[in-house]
Write a structure and sequence with these properties.
A seven-stranded mixed beta sheet has the order 6-5-4-3-2-1-14. A seven-stranded mixed beta sheet has the order 7-8-9-10-11-12-13. It is globular and about 50 Å long. It has one domain (about 15-285): Metallo-beta-lactamase, Chain A. The protein is an alpha/beta fold and about 300 residues long. It starts with a helix and ends in a 12-residue tail after the last strand. Helix 5 (about 200-205) crosses helix 6. The protein is built from seven helices and 14 strands. The structure holds zinc ion (2 copies). One zinc ion binds near residues 24 and 251. One zinc ion binds near residues 167, 188 and 228.
Length: about 300
């Protein structure tokens, strides 16, 4: 009995999401933005002893420092939705890239103007835009090019699925299933009013939680056609159609003050109280979310 207890307590079953940056487009320092957070987009998903990171906005720098300080995890999967500046600015400042005992898988979908994930990374770090190329990294890096609507077994009970997004130059959404629970990261994407994105619906069907591009409101969208972004209203419509558990809005515009984000969240909660806005530092225990009836058996 004692032995069984010891074995089960040793198995790490943590499934936790933490936001290290929630801004889109540009970082926004300043007192009016502090409660929401000013760093650009980066989210960490702990799956037992593995860590999956979505995007490398400015928020990834602090995540890197934490991982080094904790001195536990040595294997990471860094999944890029795409390589627009706001999603990659932190890449050269992610400390684990500079430690030879780190193994990092870099995931990326098809992007206009890049032949592969490795090609995109080289384009991101080159003169005259940056003093050194990714050759400076000493970690063991593997580049993984992901097709649209693909499924991968990442090992350790972690399943990955992808979906293409409607964004200039292309972008990829990711879903992770682990221990019967699930999370999807869906940004940046533009919706066509009245025509819900079927690839996204398929990806987030029955998901427990998803982060979604709530850069805009339905009222603002007509002024931003072609920018590649969506609204909190569409996020909630997709949630309902796909029978998803809850939605957290991300990619807050740089001009969106804390009070404005709070106001958007109040609107969201009127429609669906468990959903809301993501803020920097927010952490969600995915194993503790309410168990729900799934649409697909
Ligand atoms: Zn963006
Ligand atoms: Zn973008």
């Amino acid at each position: 009995m004692e032995q069984i207890r010891t074995l089960s307590s040793e198995r790490n079953t943590e499934f936790r999401l933490t936001f290290w940056g929630v801004r889109g487009t540009l970082a926004s320092p300043g007192i009016e933005f502090q409660r929401t957070g000013g760093n650009t987009i980066c989210a960490e998903l702990k799956c037992g002893d593995r860590i999956i990171v979505f995007d490398a906005g400015t928020g990834i720098r602090e995540l890197g420092s934490k991982l080094i300080a904790q001195n536990r995890v040595r294997k990471l999967d860094l999944m890029f939705t795409h390589v627009h500046y706001d999603h990659v600015e932190g890449t050269p400042f992610f400390a684990p890239f500079f430690l030879p005992d780190f193994k990092v898988n870099v995931w990326m979908g098809q992007l206009d103007g890049a032949k592969s994930a490795e090609d995109a990374m080289k384009g991101l770090m080159r003169r005259p835009y940056f003093p050194v190329g990714p050759g400076i990294f000493t970690a063991d890096i593997t580049y993984c090019d992901v097709p649209d609507c693909a499924e991968f077994d990442l090992g350790d009970g972690i399943k990955l699925r992808t979906a293409p997004l409607n964004h200039p130059g292309g972008a990829t959404a990711y879903r992770i299933d682990f221990q019967g629970r699930s999370f999807a990261f869906v940004t940046d994407t533009e919706h066509v009013p009245g025509k819900p994105n079927q690839d996204i619906i398929k990806l987030i069907t029955d998901v427990d939680l998803f982060a979604y591009d709530t850069s805009l409101t339905d009222e603002e969208l007509p002024d931003f056609v072609g920018y590649g972004h969506s609204t909190w209203e569409e996020a909630l419509r997709l949630r309902e159609t796909a029978n998803a558990g809850a939605m957290l809005g991300v990619h807050h515009m740089p001009f969106r003050t804390d009070d404005e984000v709070d106001k958007m969240e109040r609107h969201i909660k009127k429609v669906h109280p468990p959903s809301g806005m993501a803020r920097e530092g927010m952490s969600v225990d995915l194993m503790n979310l309410p168990v729900r009836v799934k649409q697909q058996a």
